[in-house]
Prior knowledge:
Layout: H1 22-32, E1 38-41, E2 45-49, E3 55-59, H2 64-69, H3 72-77, E4 79-84, E5 87-88, E6 92-94, E7 101-102, H4 104-115, E8 119-124, H5 127-136, E9 141-142, E10 156-171, E11 189-193, H6 197-211, E12 218-222, H7 225-233, E13 239-243, H8 244-253, E14 258-275, H9 281-294, H10 296-303
Parallel strand pairs: 4-8, 4-9, 11-12, 11-13
Antiparallel strand pairs: 1-8, 2-3, 5-6, 6-7, 10-13, 10-14
Amino acid sequence: MRSPVEVIKTRRQEIVSPVGPVLLVLVVVLAAGCGSSSNEASGTTTRTVTASGGTASTTTAVDTKIAAEVPAAIKSKGTLIVATNPHYAPNEFIGSDAKTIVGMDPDLAKALATVMGLKVKVVSASFKSIIPGVSSGKFDLGMSSITDTRQREKAVDFVTYFKAGTSFFTNATGGLQIQKGLTELCGHSVAVGSGTTGHEDATNQSAKCKSAGKKPIKIFVYPNQTAVSLGVKKGLGQIGIADQPVAAYLSVISKGHFILTGTPYNVAPYGIAIPKGSGMAKPVLDALKVLMANGTYKAILTRWYGSTGAITNPQINGAIF
């Protein structure tokens, strides 16, 4: 799910088994595809939607000090346009109404906006268009499980808010099972999202396979994670590559069709993408610290099976590679 020229690396972490109604959500995600949709929120209450279809509310009031940090151009507009690619459940995906974007990132975006005294509109975008869109000012923020990397920081600023690694999944019946990771994929096939970390990693590993005199990896490239999963299901890619929470989520809600295999690798921070020079990095960072202090951050991550990816020290441009 991330861009080929400047690869935006994605990372996620393990989740616990969700309850039965989540199965309906997956069916809707697979059927709905990448339909364009949006969410708006305002006021002092952040409404979070559970993966099982229920709701819970966490009261988060406007912080006047942080609201005063928001640049005049954003303040006068009043609404943050936040781009995401809604094909990465449970972090961002199309909900059970087949149009609303739900998940960890949309809920965090709403809560951050509330603290800053703003409304928010979460919009669907292809993953590879998010960083260029943020950089050009088309989007105010990008929140789509984007890893903060030094290469990405050349185009946009980031505020880190999560950490995760990359995992492999396969068909439980007839799938390719591996013990470790990328080095075992020589001569086999993998399914990846266009421009994702998995895409980059598989491409680099295939070159290493050839250099070592082994067969290269056959790489099936798909436009998004939904298509990657369907490709693996059909055998067009013996192994699928995704961030940990996404791969784990798939293994649970697929009713045993998918299983995890191999060992996760490269744990790194996700970042909220922000236009350079916009003046939004500090208010976003300060708003995130408020959510961490008042329990909203933890509540949202827990609701979307992301508590083990929580961080305690968010930073502006905190890339580790």
